[in-house]
Amino acid sequence: MTPNAPTSFFITGTDTEVGKTLASGAFILKLRETGIKAVGFKPVVAGTYIDASGKERNEDLETLRLASGLNSDEQSLCPFVLGQAAAPHLVAQKNGVHLDATIILDEFKALTAAFDAVVVEGAGGFLVPLTEQEDLGDVAQAMDLPVILVVGMRLGCINHALLTCEAIQSRQLTIVGWVANTLSNEMPLLEENIQTLKDRIFAPFLGSIPSLPAQLNKPDNAPYSIEALRFAAEHIRLPE
Ligand SMILES: Nc1ncnc2c1ncn2[C@@H]1O[C@H](COP(=O)(O)OP(=O)(O)OP(=O)(O)O)[C@@H](O)[C@H]1O
Ligand SMILES: C[C@H](N)[C@H](N)CCCCCC(=O)O
Ligand SMILES: [Mg+2]
């Protein structure tokens, strides 16, 4: 890593289910490999499961916890844990929860004080709403973090990636890199799609994560394994 390389990031994606958690976990591992005490954070999660000990868990938070080297319940990595896997502002509304950006920012700041680097994973795409007034783009802007875009390589991703870049830039944030994530079904013309994105995204390409080998695939509602995160980490580099 170069001396002034950024170490905290906001990881956004072209959509929900594009591999932000896989990439976030992998970036945390890479930071920790260089001796940086890095931790993951999510402003909000929607969708929980009950683990073997009967506790309510969220797979993204368990993945970020694993990547960060934290034991269960050691540290809160998210101020708002909602049960239903749906648009967070709607689930929150239904449950009478106010997704207060101030609370998100306070918890994020507390982590920045306790760790060397914080890797923030967004929820869904860049402009997912929090309340009637605010969205995750506002949170990214308030955190003032360099942004990494994860492109889920499927048909339609070129347009989604370019729209997302415009939205990030219109919030005066810097895109420090982007990752191509191959997803479980490799799309036709994968390399040509990646080249098209390289030609049009004016930010460094940080690597391409292949489809996970069958033995590293995970069921829905389960965290990634450390082996899956290591596999992804081998295919990407940290921004310089
Ligand atoms: N490289 C890959 N190979 C195979 N499957 C993948 C790959 N990347 C992601 N997936 C699968 O796609 C699904 C979505 O991935 P992931 O949960 O990382 O997305 P996300 O962008 O973090 O979603 P969310 O918006 O819910 O946070 C998961 O079931 C995961 O197993
Ligand atoms: C529940 C899911 N896994 C994500 N965490 C939230 C995705 C919200 C998408 C909202 C939208 O853009 O329509
Ligand atoms: Mg995720």
UniProtKB/TrEMBL annotation:
Entry keyword Magnesium: yes
CDD domains: DTBS (cd03109)
Entry keyword GTP-binding: no
InterPro entries tied to this protein: DTB_synth_BioD, P-loop_NTPase
Biochemical pathway: Cofactor biosynthesis; biotin biosynthesis; biotin from 7,8-diaminononanoate: step 1/2
Keywords for the protein's UniProt record, in alphabetical order: ATP-binding, Biotin biosynthesis, Cytoplasm, Ligase, Magnesium, Metal-binding, Nucleotide-binding
Chief localisation class: cytoplasm
GO BP terms, alphabetized: biotin biosynthetic process
GO molecular function terms attached to this record: ATP binding; dethiobiotin synthase activity; magnesium ion binding; protein homodimerization activity
Catalysed conversion reaction: (7R,8S)-7,8-diammoniononanoate + CO2 + ATP = (4R,5S)-dethiobiotin + ADP + phosphate + 3 H(+)
Binding residues annotated for ATP, in chain numbering: 17-22, 60, 121-124, 181-182, 210-212
Cofactor(s) essential for the protein: Mg(2+)
Catalytic site: K42
Annotated positions binding Mg(2+): T21, D60, E121
Pfam families documented for this protein: AAA_26
Subcellular location: Cytoplasm
Gene Ontology cellular-component annotations: cytosol
Domain of life: Bacteria
Subunit composition and interactions: Homodimer.
NCBIfam families hit by this protein: bioD
Family: Belongs to the dethiobiotin synthetase family.
Entry protein name: ATP-dependent dethiobiotin synthetase BioD
Organism this protein belongs to: Polynucleobacter arcticus
